[in-house]
Design goal:
The protein is α+β, with helices and mostly antiparallel strands. The chain contains 8 helices and 14 strands. The radius of gyration is 17 Å and the shape is globular.
Length: 256
């Protein structure tokens, strides 16, 4: 079973690339982020046409997450995170697929920092941690998949110096991410590549793709029951180099 997280950076603009990926790679489950699409404009007809069911939590022009499944329509468990009722950002959707709990998440960027956006990022991470504890308590195979907007380690970026003032790499961001993992989650890509040096994102600016000046911010965290089934993990890097591609590459884990 191949489970993918993929920030598409606008599902309408990237729909040909997404359909291409689904047809060519045939992943079992795909978690999408940054849809930039309202609920009623999500392209479900196109997705169903290539054999996938879907659930989504959209927002016009911003944010938005979805879960696609080849086995049929996922069963929604939750949209959004508790703890901040006034938060209208569409950044979390959770579903069950063939006994596997899957959450697609799009964590706030947090820039500029310090400031309100960075404060919101840390509060959102606290709320995610609360939900993660609930999922672990269920003692079922579960995956928290998405764009975390956190560079967890120095070897997860092409340049520590270039990113040192960015919200993605602040000590508070890292501490929150590491505390989440320490609950008992397994960082699939980190486990597969313990020395780092694997990127999932390359900016459109300054020839970042051509220079391979990327960093790793797309993560798949596995509950102990899912980690026991892990076979492999990686990045489908070539898809970042295609015409009008997202600035993220599909990132995946394979489970027995």
């Amino acid at each position: 079973m191949k489970i993918v997280t993929y920030n598409v950076n606008g599902i309408k603009a990237r729909l040909p690339r997404l359909i291409e990926y689904l047809v060519e790679e045939q992943p079992d489950i795909v978690c999408l982020q940054e849809l930039k699409s309202s609920d009623d404009t999500f392209p479900i007809t196109d997705i169903e046409a290539v054999g996938y069911g879907a659930v989504w939590h959209g927002q016009k022009a911003w944010n938005g997450v979805a879960i696609l499944a080849k086995s049929g329509t996922p069963v929604v468990r939750q949209r959004g995170l508790e703890g901040e009722p006034e938060d209208e950002h569409s950044r979390y959707v959770e579903a069950e697929i063939d006994g596997l709990i899957v959450a697609a998440l799009y964590l706030p960027n947090g820039n500029p920092q310090p400031g309100p956006k960075f404060d919101y990022k840390l509060r959102w991470m606290d709320r995610l941690a609360d939900r993660a504890r609930v999922l672990l308590a269920e003692e079922k195979p579960a995956i928290l998949a998405g764009d975390y907007n956190v560079i967890a380690n120095d070897d997860d970026t092409f340049s520590v110096r270039a990113m040192q003032d960015d919200a993605l790499m602040q000590p508070e961001s890292r501490e929150h991410y590491r505390a989440l993992v320490a609950q008992g989650w397994t960082d699939a890509l980190r486990t597969q590549f313990p020395k780092g040096g694997v990127w999932t994102f390359w900016d459109y600016q300054a020839g970042a793709w051509q220079r391979d000046a990327g960093f790793r911010i797309d993560h798949l965290l596995l509950s102990p029951q899912a980690a026991d089934r892990m076979i492999d993990a990686g990045v489908d890097k070539a898809y970042r180099g295609r015409e009008k591609a997202s600035d993220h590459a599909p990132t995946w884990v394979r489970l027995r």
